[in-house]
Amino acid sequence: MSQDNAHAEHYHPTWKEYKWVALILFLITVVEVWVYYIPELVASKAFVPGLLIMSAVKFAIVVMYYMHLKYDHKLFRSLFVGPLLVAILTLLGLLFLFSKIAIRLSGGG
Amino acid sequence: MATVAASPTYTASATPQRSRLMSWLTTTDHKVIGTLYLHTSLFFFVLGGLEALLIRWQLMRPNSVVLTADQYNQLFTMHGTTMVFLAIMPLSAAFFNYLIPLQIGARDVAFPRLNAFSYWIFLLGGVFITLPIFFWVAPDGGWFGYAPLSGRTYSPGPNMDFWVLGLQILGISSLAASFNFATTIINMRAPGMNLMRMPMFTWMSFVTQFLIILSFPVITIALVFLQFDRFFGTTFYQISAGADPLLWQHLFWIFGHPEVYILILPAFGLVSEVLPTNSRKPLFGYPVMAYSGILIGFLGFGVWAHHMFAVGMGPIADTVFGLTTMLIAIPTGVKIFNWIFTMWGGSIRFTAAMKFAIALIAMFVIGGISGITHASPPSDLQQTDTYYIVAHFHYVLFGGAILGIFAGIYHYFPKMYGRTMNETLGTWHFWLNFIAMNLTFFPMHFAGMLGMPRRIYTYDAGQGWELFNMMSTMGAFLLAPATLIFIYNFFRSKKHGEPCGPNPWDAPTLEWSIPSPPPEYNFAKIPMVTSRYPLWDLTHPERTAEIPHTQTGWTEATQQTGEHDMAPMHIETETRTAKELGIPMPSSTIKPFFVALGIVLMFSGLLFLPKGMKVPAFALMFGGTAMWVGYLYAWLTTPLEDHH
Amino acid sequence: MSASADAAHGHHYTTTGLDNRKIAIWAFIGSECMLFASLISTYLIYKGKSLVGPFPHTPWTDPSSGKVFPAILNIPVTSASTFVLLMSSLAMVLALSAVENRGKPLPPGAGAWDKALTSSKLWLWMTCLLGAGFLAFQAYEFTSFVHEGLTIRRNLFGSSFFTLTGFHGAHVTAGVIWLGSLLAIDYKRGLQPSDALAVDLAALYWHFVDVVWIAIFTLLYLIPG
Fold first, then answer.
1. pLDDT score recorded for residue B9
2. Within 13 A of C166's CA, how many CA atoms are on the CB side?
3. Residue A87 C-alpha, separation from nearest chain B C-alpha, in angstroms
4. Which residues of chain A neighbour B213 with C-beta distances below 8 Å?
5. Which residues of C touch A76 (CB under 8 A)?
6. Nearest-CA residue of chain C relative to A24?
7. What is the spatial distance between Cα B265 and Cα B332, in angstroms, rounded to a whole number?
8. pLDDT over threshold 80, residue B372
9. Are the CB atoms for A57 and C221 separated by under 8 Å?
C-alpha cells in the first residue's frame, strides 16, 4: 500500500542515531537543572534566554529525529511548523498584551 | 441521456429492509450526511430567525413589553449562538460534505465514519443547547459569553451551563470534521487535480479547515476555564482572586475572529463557482483568488483585538491591530474585483443562484466598508456596542454568508436531487429577501450612529430611534415570508422540480460530470484531470484555451493502483451499483452515533452537579463515558469496508 | 485498531501516496499546538498575579495566621519525571524500529542487545511503564501540593498550574492507553511491518506529548518569576 512506498523512500534513523539523541536530550536536561541551582547563573541576564534556547533545542531534536520530520515528507513539516508558528506568535502577542509595557503605555499606570 | 430519469436505478442498492431512520443513523455516505447537515441547519436557521423576529417585535416601539428583559437576553444570546454555530457553520459543512469529494474526484471523504460522527455530535449538541429556550432557561450571556459575567457569581442559574457545555460539544464536531476535510483535500484528489486546479469552493474550504484546526482549540480552552470556574470553583475569571477580566475576551476573540472567516470563506467559495458558470467565463485571476483566501485566513489570526479597542489596550496594541485589520481589506477587495471582472464581458445568465451571488458582492461591500470604519480605533470608540456594529456584521453575515449559501443551494440543488428548484419562486425569494434584508439592517446604521446601544431590551422614546427601529422590524417581518417561499420551493422541488441531467448549468468542474443525484460511489472511474475546467475542455474548449493543460500526476497515480480504476476526463453514464462494479464502499454503522450520544450524555451529567444531585450527575457521566469508550473501541476494531 | 484491516485493502489511491491517517494525526498535532499554547499563555499571564500563596518559586507567609508556605515546586522530583518521559520517547522509537524491521534476519554475530532491539513487546512495555511512571510522579506531585495547601481553587497559580499540567497528564494517560492497546495486538497476533503506520501514529502523538512537557518543564518549573 501507499505507506509502504512512503516508508521505503524515507530513511529511518536507527539505534545508532537514537542513542545519541537520547544522550543529548539527557545532557541538556542535566545542564538545565544544574544552572537552576547556581544562584549566580540564575541572577545573570543570560539565564532565561539560555534556558529557552536549551529547551528549544530539545524540542527541535525530538521533533526532527524521534518524530522523524527531518526524514519524512515535506507536507508533514508544513502541517506542523505552520500551526506551531501561529501558536508561538499568539503566545507572544498575548504576553505582550498583558505585559507591563503595554499597560504602562496605555497611561493606566 | 439515460441519467435524466428522476429515480436512477442505482438507488435500488440501498438495503430495503432497513427503515429510513435507520439508514440515516447508520450512513457513512458523505452525500447523505451532507443533506442531513443541510436539513438540520436549515431548521436551525428558521429557529434562529424566529428568535430574531421576537427580538424585533420587542424593539418595534419604545418601552415595549412583549418580552421581559430576561427573556430578551436569552433570545439575543440564542439568536447569535444558533446562527453562528447551528446555522451558518453547518450550512457550510453541508456543502463541504456534499461537494468536496465530488469536486476533487473522490469516492468519499478520508474518514467516512468520523464524518458521520461529526454530524451526529453536531445534531445532539444543537439539541442540547437549543432545548432550554423552550423553557426560558436558555443561555443569556451573549454569543460571546464574556467572563466574568458568564461565571457562577453573575450567572448563577443553569442557563450558561448549557452554553458552556453545548459549545464544547459543538467544538468536537467542528474539529473532527476539520481534520477529516483537510486530509480529504490533501490526499483524495483525482490524478492531475493539483492544488492550482482545485475548484475555488474546495480552495476556500481548505483554508476554512485550517482556521478551524487552529482557532477551535483556543475556544475549547477558554471554555474549559469557564467550565472549571462554574463547576469546580477555579479562579480563572474570578476578579476577587486577582484574575484579569480581559483574559476571556482575548481567548474568545483569538477564536472569534478566525470564526468570522470560517463563516464567510465557504460562501465566497460558493459564489466563486456560481459566477464563472453563469458568466460562461473562467474565474478571473484564479491564483490570486486562492492566495487572497490564504492571506485572509492567515491575517485573520492577527486581528483579534480589534473587537476590544474599547477596553484600553494601549497605543501600540491599538495601532498594530488597527493596521492588520485594515490590511485584510486588501485581499478581500481583490476578491470583490475579481468577481466583478469574472462577470465583465461574460454572457451572463441570471439564474436565481446568480442573483444571490451578485447580491453578495454588493452587500458584502457595504459590510466590508462599514467594517473598515471601525478598524480605526478612535472611530471604533464611537461605534462599538452600538447598532452600527449590528448593522455591520449582519451585512457581512447575512449579506455575505447567507446570500452566498442561498446561491449555493439554488446552484447545487439539481446535483443533490436531480431536479432544479423553481426559478420563478427563486426570483421572488431573491427580491423579497434582498429588499427585506436591506430594510432590516440598513436603518441600524443610523440607529447606531444616533447612539442606540446593542443588547438593550427596550428604550425610551424621543431619542430619534423610533423610525429606524420600526423600519428594521418591518424588514424582519418581511424576511419571514421570503424564507417561507424558499422553504416551500425547496421541499416542493425535491418531488416536483424539473428533472435535469448531470450538468444543468453547463458548469466546468468535476461534480457536474456525474449523474444527478450521484451514485453512491460518485465516480465509476476516477477522472484523470488535465486542467482547471475539465468539463469545458470537453464542451467549450474555446473558453479554456488560455489555461495550461498538462497531465501531471498521472504517472504517479497509475503506479500506485494501475489504470483499471481511472479514465481520462469523461461524462459518467454508469448506472450500475457499487457492488456490481466491485467498488468497495464503507459499510454503514451505528457506532459513530452512539459515540456521539455517549459524549453528549457525559457532558449532560455536569448539569446536575451545581444542584447537588450527585446520583444522576455521576450516573450520566460514567454511563456516557462507558458508552462512548465502548462504541469507540468497537468502531476502531471494525474494518471500514465489508469484504465482499 | 482498524489499521491492519485498512492496510490489507491495498487498492485505495491517494494523491500524495501517503496514508490519510498520518496526515490527519499531523493536522491534529498542529491543532494541539494551539491548545497547549492557550494553556501555557494563561499560566504565564497569571504568573505572579495570585493574591494568596502558596507560590511556585517563592515562600509566602499567610498574614492572618502567620503560617509560612515554602516555595512549592519540587524541582528534583520533576527533573526525575522529565527524565522518565524523555526516556519513554527513546523506548518509543525503538518499539517503532522493532516493528518496522520485524522479520529481517539479524546480522551474523549479533549480540543479546541486538536481539533485544528487535523486540517490539519489550519496548512497548518500556514506553508504557515509563509513561505510567511519569503519571505516578505527577500523582505524587499533585497530592503533595494539595497537602501543602495548594488546590485548584486556592489561587490563580493553582488553577492554571493544575489545569495545564492536568491536561498534559490526561494526554499522557490517553497515550498509555493507546500504546497498551498496541501491546495487546502485539500479544494477540504480533505487530508486523504492515502495522508500522499504526505504531507510527501512536509514536508521533507520544513524542508530541513529550515535547509539550519539554516546554512546560522550562517555562513552568525552571524559570522563576
1. 39
2. 15
3. 8
4. 83
5. 22-23, 26
6. C86
7. 10
8. yes
9. no
Whether pLDDT at B14 is above 60: no
Q: Where are the beta strands (DSSP E) in B120-246?
A: none
B574 to B67, B220, B399, B525: CA distances (angstroms): 58, 46, 40, 9
B221 in contact with A, Cβ within 8 Å? no
Other Cβ atoms less than 10 A from the Cβ of B435: the count is 14
Nearest by Cα to B294 from B209, B207, B196, B178 = B207
How many Å lie between the alpha carbon of C46 and the closest alpha carbon of chain B? 7
Sign of the alpha-carbon dihedral angle for C199, C200, C205, C209? positive
How do residues C72-92 score in pLDDT, each as one tens digit?
A: 999 999 999 999 999 999 999
Predicted confidence band of residue A107 (pLDDT cuts 50, 70, 90): low
The model's pLDDT over B32-51, given as tens digits with 9 standing for 90+, comes to 999 999 999 999 999 999 99
User: Distance between CA B66 and CA C151 in Å, rounded?
Assistant: 47
- Contact by Cβ (8 Å): C15, A73: no
C2 contact residues in B (CB cutoff 8 A): 635-640
- Taking an 8 Å cut-off on Cβ atoms, the answer to whether C37 and A87 are in contact is yes
What confidence tens digit (pLDDT) does each residue in B99-151 have?
999 999 999 999 999 999 999 999 999 999 999 999 999 999 999 999 999 99
Radius of gyration of chain C (CA): 21
Taking all residues of chain B, what is their mean pLDDT, rounded to a whole number?
Answer: 93
Q: Alpha helices of B27-133 — where are they, by DSSP H? A: 30-59, 69-81, 89-104, 112-130
- Beta-bridge partners for A91: none
User: Is the Cβ–Cβ distance between B296 and B266 less than 8 Å?
Assistant: no
Say how far apart CA B593 and CA B575 lie, in whole Å: 31
Q: In chain A, where are the structural domains located? A: 1-72, 73-109
Distance CA B194, CA B144 (A): 39
Q: Which ipTM score applies to this complex? A: 0.93
Q: Which residue has the higher pLDDT, B436 or B312?
A: B436
pLDDT of residue B338: 97
- A-proximal residues of B, 243-302, CB under 8 Å: 244, 246, 250, 254, 301-302
Spatial separation of the C-alpha atoms in residues B434 and B569, rounded to whole Å: 39
Q: Are B412 and B95 in contact (CB under 8 A)?
A: yes
Whether domain C15-222 has CATH 1.20.120.80: yes
Q: Domains (ranges, CATH) in chain B?
A: 30-507 (1.20.210.10)
Average pLDDT for C112-128 = 92
Number of H helices, E strands in chain B: 21, 4
- List pLDDT tens digits, range C196-205: 999 999 999 9
Interface test with B, best of C9, C12, C13 (most B CBs within 10 A): C13
Is residue B558 pLDDT above 90, yes or no?
no
What is the residue whose three cell numbers read 439564474?
B351
The domain segmentation of chain C, as residue ranges, is 15-222
Query: Would the CB atoms of B305 and A86 count as touching at under 8 Å?
Result: no
Partners of B305 on chain A (C-beta within 8 Å) are 97
Q: How far apart are CA B631 and CA B595, in angstroms?
A: 6
